[in-house]
């Protein structure tokens, strides 16, 4: 198992209906790329991203829609796994908001 981080992270999320979209980056303005802690299991060739506890440097920016539930500047977490064949779904994403975290799960 090798531990490290993924640098220059900028992510874009959009609902299938287009009613909610936003970006993740390393600062609330969305101008600085973020980093994600990661591990790589050489025996299974599985990359694991486990950004938890809102302790990293991922923030929401560029919010459009989302019924006011996701707001610019919210800290974010993301957990996901990938193999050479592609991502392993579902992946989870959490945004910290004043009323408590919102948890989103991707699906194939």
Radius of gyration: 14 Å
Strand tally is 9
Question: What proportion strand?
Answer: over 45%
Low-confidence stretches: none
Structural class: mainly beta
- Helical content (DSSP H or I, runs of 4+): under 10%
Q: What is the terminal-to-terminal distance?
A: 27 Å
Helix count?
A: 0
Strand order, biggest sheet?
Answer: 1-4-5-7-8-9
Overall geometry: globular
> What characterizes the major β-sheet?
6 strands, antiparallel
Mean pLDDT: 79
Total number of distinct structural domains: 1
> Which series of helices and strands comes N to C?
EEEEEEEEE
Q: How is the secondary structure organized here?
A:
Elements: E1 2-9, E2 11-14, E3 20-25, E4 34-41, E5 46-51, E6 59-65, E7 76-83, E8 86-95, E9 102-105
Antiparallel strand pairs: 1-4, 2-3, 3-6, 4-5, 5-7, 7-8, 8-9
């Amino acid at each position: 198992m090798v531990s490290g981080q993924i640098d220059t992270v900028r992510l874009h999320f959009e609902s299938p209906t287009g009613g909610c979209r936003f970006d993740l980056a390393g600062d609330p303005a969305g101008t600085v790329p973020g980093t994600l802690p990661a591990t790589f299991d050489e025996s299974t060739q599985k990359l694991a991203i486990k950004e938890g506890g809102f302790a990293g440097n991922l923030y929401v920016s560029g919010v459009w829609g989302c019924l006011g539930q996701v707001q610019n500047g919210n800290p974010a977490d993301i957990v996901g796994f990938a193999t050479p064949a592609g991502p392993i779904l579902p992946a989870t994403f959490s945004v910290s908001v004043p009323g408590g975290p919102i948890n989103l799960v991707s699906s194939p």
